[in-house]
Amino acid sequence: MKPHIALIAATYGESDRLEKALSDRNRKSIRLAGKRLIKAKHLGRDVLLMNSGVGKVNAAHAATLLFENYSVNPVVAFGIGGAYPYTMLYPGDIAIADREIYGDEGVITLKGWKGLKDMGFPSVLCGRRRFFNEFSMDMKLVKKADNVAAAMGLNKKVGPFVTVSTCTGTAERAVELAKRFNAICENMEGAAIAHICTIYGVPMIEIRGISNIATDRDTSSWDLRLASENCQKVVFEFLKGICSRLLTP
After folding, report:
1. Structural domains of the chain, count
2. Rounded to whole angstroms, how far apart are CA atoms 5 and 110?
3. Is residue 247 part of a domain?
4. What is the pTM of this model?
5. In angstroms, what CA-CA distances link 209 with 29, 79, 180, 219, 226?
6. What is the pLDDT of residues 165-209, one digit of tens each?
7. Burial profile 203-213: b = 16 or more Cβ within 10 angstroms, e = fewer
8. Element containing residue 106 per DSSP (H, E)
9. Residue 87: which CATH number?
10. Which of 205, 194, 93, 197 is nearest to 143 (CA)?
11. How far is CA 142 from the centre of its chain?
């Protein structure tokens, strides 16, 4: 039996259109440890769509629940994100991660921020491999998503994402994080999902619709709906492209 394709978005507002597009006669909505899970079949493949809740712990919990209860391959994390300045990404554009980075885990010293590697604390041990703040995406999936977004005529960019617990609300902080990690956008869940995917050996991709520029906080310039709609459109087209193939780690 082919593994399930798992789709994880933090909130229903980030997955509502995709959920409707996945409707079939046998679709089921269940609760798994308090989280909402949709089970559906799409182009012959079993698909799981879960709303994780906001933040790292909720995201890690969701991914763990899926892996412990189902055979999963791959994971598609998606939703909205804030673009860092100077990336040439604007509300409604698409960002695709080539890697995910924990932006908060570490220590502030007199010489600035240091990550887990400087502290000597790996976040994941896989055999002889040690992972600290950074986790890579599956590059075959990244290329596929990039091609899909391009074919749809959307402005898009591939690059590092930063996962934070405190969203950036000042221009100074945005420039600091963008330079530190050479990153294109930030979110609150991606690195935690990538962390769990690394533990279980499951390939992952992350696609975000840009809702705002991370700078001095001004919600009047945000477009959450456009970001969510465009992201879900890309995810749906990407899903169509992989449903007929069995992807293995």
Report:
1. 1
2. 45
3. no
4. 0.94
5. 25, 6, 22, 16, 8
6. 999 999 999 999 999 999 999 999 999 999 999 999 999 999 999
7. bbbbbbbbbbb
8. strand 106-109
9. 3.40.50.1580
10. 205
11. 12
